[in-house]
Specification:
Elements: E1 2-5, H1 20-27, E2 32-36, H2 47-52, E3 56-58, H3 61-67, E4 70-75, H4 79-84, E5 90-94, H5 102-110, E6 114-117, H6 131-149, E7 171-175, H7 179-190, E8 194-199, H8 202-211, E9 216-219, H9 222-231, E10 234-237, H10 252-256, E11 263-266, E12 287-290, E13 293-296, H11 306-327, H12 329-335, H13 337-341, E14 343-346, E15 349-350
Parallel strand pairs: 1-2, 1-4, 2-3, 4-5, 5-6, 7-8, 7-10, 8-9, 10-11, 11-13
Antiparallel strand pairs: 6-14, 12-13, 14-15
Helix pairs in contact: 6-7, 6-11, 11-12
């Protein structure tokens, strides 16, 4: 099989669709990997490393897209990239088609592309193995970036997140006690913040309470959300509804009631966001001010730690990639229910409607 690994063209996407060790595993099995020139540079992988792993370097994107039976990407393709895709080929990546423009979905159907969304792949026990490490990274980054956004030079309130003797720490409110929310709570606690976590799932709150007794846990409802947002220095929206647009739980009125120069971080923005005032931004301009509150809403948040996140999500994705390549895409989908669960379009037909919400974002 011919596998294509293109350079990512989405703004400030530094990750790459396969690392050199993965290329070596595939080429040793007799498959051919075409890696676009400098595709791995943002994640710290040189062309020479790919060549030593058995890859062929392509100097134009047209060659990579034109030769690939299976294209391994990170971000959802741009419209230009969709035009380059060969009809009836396969595409795998963090596609997030639930927040894609409808014309992109129509182009996948028109060209009979088999589109496999890593973030939708689900194991029989209900876990999402590829989404998990990215959620973990997003949660940890929320603490790193949130602490910085409270600084005066970033327009923040001038608060040291962990406080000082005689000076209280920052108040952090996290909405969602899933993987991202739990990792965010752990990171914020480690920095000395006072943390409150809200969720509708009592069992999830119990896990956090047992693991981090210093964290305040609350049932998520309108009254508690209004109360928590009003005193928060940082609000982190970390709600994920698997394959669907998350509900809006933080309203404009709640944001308006927050203290000036507080921070809202909507880390579920890659699926549409859970804060009414959110809108997708980029790593070039990651923040905006709405209702006097700083908003951070970057869909490809883990890209700023490209090497770590490339290794993390591909370590989880590689077994599925190997199966797609060794068995062939059609057979792998037919035999592996986990891979099938990630199929958004298949040979010109929609496979999983839950991943294809009509709610669209800018890209």
């Amino acid at each position: 099989m011919n596998i294509g690994i293109p350079k990512e063209r989405r703004a400030f996407e530094y990750r790459v669709g396969l690392f050199p060790a993965g290329v070596k595993m595939l080429t040793q099995l007799g498959h051919t990997c075409y890696v676009e020139h400098d595709a791995g540079l943002g994640a710290g992988f040189s062309d020479q490393e790919y060549i030593q792993s058995g890859a062929k370097i392509a100097y134009t994107p047209h060659e990579v897209f034109g030769r690939a039976d299976l294209l391994l990407k990170v971000a959802r393709p741009t419209m230009e990239e969709l035009e380059w895709l060969q009809p009836e080929s396969a595409l795998a990546g963090l596609l997030h088609l639930g927040s894609a423009r409808q014309d992109k979905i129509e182009k996948l159907i028109e060209k009979e592309i088999t589109a496999i969304s890593y973030e939708l792949i689900t194991l029989p026990d209900g876990t999402v193995p590829i989404r998990k490490p990215l959620s973990q990274i997003g949660g940890i980054l929320a603490a790193q970036i949130g602490a910085m956004l409270l600084q005066n030079n970033e327009g923040g309130k001038g608060i040291l997140i962990g406080g000082m003797p005689g000076v209280p720490p920052a108040e952090v409110v996290i909405i969602g006690a899933g993987i991202a929310g739990t990792c965010a709570a752990r990171a914020f606690v480690g920095m000395g913040a006072h943390v409150t976590v809200l969720d509708t799932n009592i069992n999830a709150l119990e896990v956090i309470h047992d693991a981090m007794p210093c964290v305040v846990t609350m049932v998520s409802n309108q009254v508690n959300l209004e109360r928590a947002c009003a005193y928060a220095d940082i609000v982190v929206g970390a709600i994920l509804v698997h394959g669907e647009h998350p509900p809006i739980v933080v309203t404009r009125d709640m944001v308006r009631a927050m203290k000036p120069r507080s921070v809202v971080m909507d880390i579920s923005i890659d699926e549409g966001g859970c804060v009414e005032t959110s809108r997708p931004m980029t790593n070039e301009k990651p923040t905006f001010i709405e209702e006097g509150v700083i908003h951070y809403c970057v869909p490809n948040m883990p890209s700023v730690v490209a090497r770590t996140s490339t290794y993390a999500f591909l370590n989880a994705a590689l077994p599925f990639i190997m199966e797609l390549v060794t068995k062939g895409v059609d057979q792998a989908i037919a035999e592996n229910t986990s891979i099938e669960s990630g199929v958004s379009t298949y040979q010109g037909r929609v496979r999983h409607l839950s991943s294809l919400s009509p709610l669209a974002q800018a890209e």
